[in-house]
Specification:
The complex is a heterodimer of chains A (about 500) and B (about 200). Chain A has about 500 residues and is of the alpha+beta class. Chain A has 13 helices and 20 strands. Chain A has helices spanning about 15-45, 45-70, 115-120, 140-155, 180-190, 195-215, 220-260, 300-305, 320-325, 340-350, 365-390, 395-415, 480-495; strands at about 75-80, 85-90, 95-100, 105-110, 120-125, 135-140, 175-180, 265-270, 270-275, 280-285, 290-300, 310-315, 330-335, 360, 420, 425-430, 435-440, 450-455, 460-470, 470-480. In chain A, the strands form 4 sheets. Chain A has a 7-stranded antiparallel beta sheet with strand order 6-5-4-10-9-8-7, with helices on both faces. In chain A, strands 13-12-11-17-16-15-14 form a 7-stranded antiparallel beta sheet. Chain B has a 4-stranded antiparallel beta sheet with strand order 1-2-3-4. In chain B, strands 5-6-7 form a 3-stranded antiparallel beta sheet. In chain B, helix 1 packs antiparallel against helix 2. Chain B starts with about 20 loop residues before the first strand and ends in a 19-residue tail after the last helix. In chain B, strand 6 (about 135-140) and strand 7 (about 150-155) form a beta hairpin. Chain B has helices at about 30-60, 65-90, 130, 155-180; strands spanning about 25, 90-95, 100-105, 110-115, 120-125, 135-140, 150-155. Chain B has about 200 residues and is an alpha+beta fold. The chains are: A alpha+beta (about 500), B alpha+beta (about 200). Chains A and B meet through strand 3, helix 9, strand 18, strand 19 and helix 13 of A and strand 4 and helix 4 of B. Strand 18 (about 450-455) of chain A pairs antiparallel with strand 4 (about 110-115) of chain B.
């Protein structure tokens, strides 16, 4: 039975919190003064060192006293009647922070090294809008942290009534999604294919090189030995390259696993509670109405393994953009979901089945950019280098055929997959040759529309559009301009005549 | 029940944004553009002069070099004037009952449409030069971020304020409709500070 009244009176952190406060303050002090301290120690004559040590001890004592006072003056509690979380702190100047429960977006429970030694956790509360956490409770037991987190995220605490004593705080439904480690691995290995491809290419080059060598090597003349040595160093560089790429690949994989370990999504009332993380468990409560763009992507290998990547983009705060840092909480990533889980999430977010409607195809001119920048330009450069700068490059010319084939296929599939599906409830954009991605928005999430037409496209009736939402832009290029304009007029009608709010 | 209708919507009968006639920005704004270009030209000339002096001191360059550079600089400035004139003529805006449109661009005509009920806030900005000619620019902010924010420069000051008033009224009206029809008020408006009260 979970004691319901545990947090309704102001309470302090765990007593060992004093140690944490001490460590915190000490750390801040050292960070601020390490440079002058280092200089002082360096220049000080031996005798004065004693004074130095005594001085440091005094400082430590002061920090200790401050830590104790900070501990004594830090209290927090949950005001159920007002639905607020209230934190009071401050030794000399008192500060009282009250956060409405409905403003809380994220509650994280973390544990750093010192806290691990002592056996306490920290609980951070994040509200929508700003990038920094509002409240950080530095020393709290694991159980208390879990209970408090549950209460903070639930928004409406069950008021203690005489006949509901036996009730749990919340009725947890079965998780919609539980991402296993193997799913994370599958996704991690099959994405960042750019890096895997680079490794493969590097391998390919070295093997090709060595084969050519072997075939040509009839006699070992001096020149050929020299060439072989040169190629040997080339081989050395290649191996370093390969190792580097493999390392970055592995590091990325491990980071993904640590960050999204044990990802679980539970439907709570009308919201999604998403929790994940190996060392620092993160919890986000997502109100479906706040979702602006839902994105998911899957490539050939992921299709075979039935995993995909998914992102839910919420309104991103303008303030954070000024800071320059990306607001993590504005994009929720769900790597490793399978198809049915994706459908379940979509159902919760949109409360209806997402369907494709009228199809918009791109004009054939869409492939020009791919051809120019993917084929003509690089090949021209390679040819130029081969003929005028470095003769050796000519030996790689046959590979150009293979390159044309691969890139040609990518361009073709990219063109075939580039679509816009429109019905009265959804706008879905599909794109990609290898990683096929879908972006879904609802018409009333549109903030503004931009259309763009180059004057040389006027006659062929081709144009580009961008739909702006609070979670990012959705663009579709090389559309049939007259057709898409009709659709734009309808979207404007939908936005301007509906009272549906976008958040 | 009597007011309920569910007629099919004929896409072709909806108001067409492409057919809107756009109003040009104020003629006098061209002066502002010219002044800005002249300032840039002056800086460019100074830079050229400095290059000339240093090149002259190193000796070995013939008259052809100077002539070439001068022609190039003049040509470039002339080109800038020409391009800006075209861009200036192509700028236009339009006000409909429920949205605002802005069109610009030389090679590509870019039209941005912002529905009134999606405007976050509006500002009228009078730059130093614009003020001399009684002009101002209207800045419209949406929740779509920088890519969908609009800045219409070169509007007559009175007109700019008048449009702002009109938009504010539509904004407030839209907000009222929203507030009364939404049951669960989860107004986490980003511009409103969510910082809690501080009682010392």
């Amino acid at each position: 039975m979970i004691p319901e009244t545990k947090f309704d009176k102001p309470q302090r952190q765990s007593a060992v919190g004093i140690v944490i406060m001490f460590a915190d303050t000490l750390q801040k002090f050292l960070r601020a003064s390490w440079a002058p301290l280092a200089i002082m120690i360096y220049r000080m004559p031996a005798e004065a060192l004693w004074y130095m040590i005594i001085g440091m001890l005094v400082v430590f004592l002061i920090i200790g006293v401050v830590a104790y006072l900070r501990y004594r003056n830090f209290t927090f509690f949950l005001d159920e009647s007002k639905q607020e979380f209230i934190v009071q702190s401050g030794i000399l100047s008192k500060k009282r922070l009250s956060i409405g429960l409905d403003k809380i977006q994220q509650v994280n429970i973390n544990q750093n090294v010192i806290q691990k030694l002592i056996g306490v956790y920290s609980l951070d509360v994040d509200t929508a809008g700003s990038g920094t956490k509002e409240v950080s409770i530095r020393a709290i037991t694991h159980d208390s942290a879990q209970i408090l987190k549950a209460k903070l995220l639930e928004r409406e605490i069950v008021k203690s009534e005489p006949n509901s004593v036996g009730q749990e705080i919340e009725e947890k439904q079965k998780p919609i999604i539980k991402i296993s480690l193997s799913s994370l691995l599958k996704v991690g290995v099959t994405s960042n294919y750019g890096r895997s491809l680079a490794i493969l290419l590097a391998f390919f080059f070295t093997i090709y090189d060595n084969i050519m060598d072997f075939v040509e090597n009839e006699m070992l003349s001096e020149e050929q030995i020299e060439q072989y040595i040169v190629k040997g160093t080339m081989l050395g560089f290649m191996t370093i390259f390969v190792v580097l790429f493999a390392l970055t690949f592995l590091i990325n994989l491990v980071r993904t696993i640590i960050r999204y370990f044990d990802l679980e999504i539970v439907k709570q009332r009308n919201s999604l509670l998403i929790s994940y993380g190996l060392f620092a468990k993160k919890n986000t409560l997502l109100n479906p109405k706040k979702a602006q763009i839902v994105w998911y992507s899957q490539n050939f290998f992921q299709q075979k393994m039935n995993v995909l990547k998914m992102k839910i983009k919420q309104a991103s705060s303008q303030q954070v953009k000024q800071d320059g840092k990306k607001n993590e909480s504005s994009v929720i990533e769900i790597p490793g979901a399978n198809i049915s889980e994706k459908e379940a999430i979509l159902q919760v977010i949109y409360d209806k089945t997402v369907e494709k409607g009228k199809v918009f195809n791109p004009n054939y001119r869409y492939v020009f950019r791919g051809i120019y920048f993917g084929l003509l330009f690089p090949i021209a450069i390679v040819l130029l280098i081969g003929f005028f700068i470095n003769e050796e490059v000519k030996s790689y010319f046959p590979l150009i055929g293979l390159y044309v084939m691969i890139v040609g296929l990518l361009i073709y599939f990219g063109f075939r997959n580039y679509r816009l599906f429109v019905n009265s409830d959804f706008i879905i954009k599909k794109r990609g040759a290898w990683d096929v991605e879908h972006q879904i928005i609802e018409p009333h999430k549109i903030q503004a529309i931009t259309t763009k037409q180059f004057f040389w496209h006027k006659r062929s009736d081709v144009g580009h559009i961008i739909l702006h939402t609070a979670g990012g832009d959705l663009s579709f290029r090389f559309a049939n301009f007259s057709e898409i304009n009709k659709q734009i007029n309808y979207w404007l009608y939908q936005v301007e005549s509906s009272n549906k709010h976008w958040m | 029940m009597q007011n309920f209708t569910n007629n099919p919507i004929n896409l072709d009968e909806l108001p067409q944004y492409e057919a809107v006639s756009f109003l040009p920005i104020h003629k006098q704004y061209w002066n502002v553009i010219v002044i800005n270009l002249l300032i840039f030209a002056v800086i460019l000339f100074i830079a050229t002069a400095i290059t000339f002096v240093s090149v002259y001191q190193s000796g070995e360059v013939g008259v052809g070099f100077y002539v070439f550079i001068l022609v190039f600089v003049f040509g470039f400035i002339g080109f800038l004037f020409w391009i800006n004139r075209i861009a200036f003529k192509k700028k236009g805006y339009a006000l409909r009952e429920k949205d605002l449109l802005y069109r610009s661009g030389i090679l590509a005509t870019t039209t941005t449409i912002i529905p009134f009920n999606r405007i976050q806030h509006i500002a009228v900005h009078e730059g130093m030069l614009s003020r001399m000619y009684g002009l101002a620019s209207l800045e419209i902010y949406t929740a779509g971020g920088n890519s969908s924010d609009l800045s219409i420069s070169g509007l007559d000051k009175e007109k700019a304020y008048a449009i702002k008033e009109l938009l504010m009224k539509s904004l407030n009206y839209a907000n009222q409709i929203h507030n009364s029809s939404v049951v669960e008020s989860q107004e986490n408006d980003i511009t409103e500070s969510t910082k809690p009260d501080l009682e010392s």
